[in-house]
């Protein structure tokens, strides 16, 4: 199997199962044209997040890592009219681009954008009494994954779902500790999950247009 074939399969199934969406396409294209890194989730991953939020009946969502707003739009579209999504982004250019895309999608009334480092913003959310969130999506810098997960757990409730993206890192997850800060973060996250009695979790490897990676899905227990 090759990257070319993974991309072709994504293209084939996407045309059948993911309707063409000019707003999402513009969000993805505009980010690339502005010279921003192509780091948002794929259309298949975006729809998976949307379906997870719908199946779970999520009314409140926390997103750590807004980027272009692509995943934000997918998640916000799953919310009811009185739902709320809080998204955190440290990059000013990303945040400005995301705000425009979220506004174009007609979702600004559902989305509370916070600009700043997540580990500065998350304590502020706790102090404000934000949450508990029904669903948390973590897609930010990989060395910070363990701390982001701790905060997501603190801002959750029994039954909350936490999704962490990019945890396999092209298979580098199995490399020895100390080889790469991103690998260290992903391994520390898995060690934390193994020792955390409040959550039940699994990690799923994925291939597709974005290459070889994976995500962790965790459910908060009693």
From TrEMBL:
Signal peptide: none annotated. Keywords: Methyltransferase, S-adenosyl-L-methionine, Transferase. The keyword Acyltransferase does not apply. It comes from the Bacteria. SUPFAM superfamilies: S-adenosyl-L-methionine-dependent methyltransferases (SSF53335). PANTHER family: CAFFEOYL-COA O-METHYLTRANSFERASE 3-RELATED (PTHR10509:SF14), O-METHYLTRANSFERASE-RELATED (PTHR10509). This is O-methyltransferase.
